[in-house]
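Q: What does the assembly look like in three dimensions?
Context provided by user:
Components: two
Sequences:
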Amino acid sequence: MTEPKAPGFSTLAIHAGAAPDPATGARATPIYQTTSFVFDDVDHAASLFGLQAFGNIYSRLGNPTCAVLEERVAALEGGTAALGVASGHAAEFLVMHTLLQPGDEFIASKKLYGGSINQFNHSYKNFDWRVKWADPDDLSTFEAAVSEKTKAIFIESIANPGGVIVDIQAIADIAHRAGVPLIVDNTMATPYLIRPFEHGADIVVHSATKFLGGHGNSVAGVIVDGGRFDWIKSGRYPMLSKPRPEYNGMVLGETFGNFGFAIACRVLGLRDLGPALSPFNAFMILTGIETLPLRMQRHCDNALKVAQHLQRHPKVAWVSYPGLEGDKYNGLAKRYSPKGAGAVFTFGLKGGYDAGVALVSNLKMFSHLANIGDTRSLVIHPASTTHRQLTAEQQTQAGAGPEVVRLSIGLEDVEDIIADLDEALAAS
Amino acid sequence: MARRRGLVYHSRMTHDAYPDDLIRGILHNVKTIALVGYSANSARPSWIVTKYLLERGYTVVPVNPGLAGQQQLGQTVYGSLKDIPFPIDMVEIFRNSEAAGPITDEALALDPLPKVIWMQLSVRNDEAAARAEAKGVTVIMNRCPKIEYGRLSGEIGWQGINSRIISSKRATMAAKGFQKRTLGPPGVNPFGTRR
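A: Here is the predicted structure of the complete assembly.
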């Protein structure tokens, strides 16, 4: 028997989950563009519906193309299983739906993507899921927010709109002392830079739309199960630890062991709430992931050079990029994200709000849009767009004050990226 | 089970991780499995595993003193291991870790001995395992044979579960049906991944 060895990250990015198609021999993962799958017989159908056999029923519940993406991301994150969904927002929603009952609380970092802040503050009120905000720069605020109703803690590994690295292990320790799982949105880092499960996280969510897909062409989300949280022992998560009436009394956390959380998100959340991922989008994201290690390194290398350049620019007040020596988060970046500090960061213009608006309109290669993690370099003025719905105080807390410009550095030649910025700054 | 000698897992004997080829070899070679702790409740894992293994062509012998003599899933239920009137290749223990001790001893009193004692996911009894291994019986603990079969056949990937298998070889489809896969022999995975 040969001694086992583990495949490397780049190998997993290309191969995990994707064997040749057994029906046709197709080597690339086929797009299984079908709603439904034929049963062998009535007994097989009953086994599938009863979660007693592995297999495909209907593409809202699972699809073979989406399944390859799920296994790929689970492997890259070092998780036990994953679930592909329609968007990153859907991923967050299904995770919370699986963990929270009406009246329950969860603690979230103040430094988050503005869309997540909106979802937590407003949409969740309809479910009576109560967010309590904490500051990742002051860990005691997480401890102070814990109550008997707390069911989860939610952070981003590298926080949007950029520049913040969160001490994942320290917050995981707080979560585990409170007996709750830590959820990490790993969108901005991707598992190439940070694998949150190695730092104590229990659940990872992604907007795969961003760097995983990487080409700005498809919206998708992924939930990854870390497999270490003991739902049965905890007993505080009835979706996992109590018999489920819709599955004949099955206890999902018991039946599915260390991938029970991913299964619960699928068979209770995705099945009944319905934000399914299209097989075509899954294929596009999968194709992107094959080059994730190459792209992500280039994104980071370009971003560092651009950040260093802006730091020296006379019209720039400050640059918030953790890859810069002397940056407030440089120590955490070296510890958690040594290969690079990501591609998204913010900087402040001495000219304030008006200068930000002018810069965005003067750039000729950067695209002014609300996405990040594209091959193309992207720019946005958060205060007038993504973070517009927040109060001025929330904008500042989230790192999106009036003078702030956010860049998502692409894969173009870095000289061209810098030249576009220089010309636009000169004209602003 | 001619390959058996090669399947005994000597390396460190910690039972924290097993090479894929050890598990694959066991599931490829055993034919008759006694499942101790069978439940007639179709929502219970022991029922689900019994049904799954029967569908994959194994002879599964349910063992439960409360159901002895009944027909379940087309099989005769026995009250205890010693009542089974034919040799068994593998004893699968669907009881708690403490109960796994005396059940292991019952299995070790069988003649001929089973080749494998397998304790279900969350069941682990290292003292019992040591007694079995002293008699040359291979022991697997804290694993589910259904999950392992699904994982090693690639079937579990339908559910987005990380199989930890990397292979450019075509999966083996079952003779009947569209989605069912079967296990090949050991040696197809270039990374003998531990789990």
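Follow-up: Chain A has a mean pLDDT of 95.
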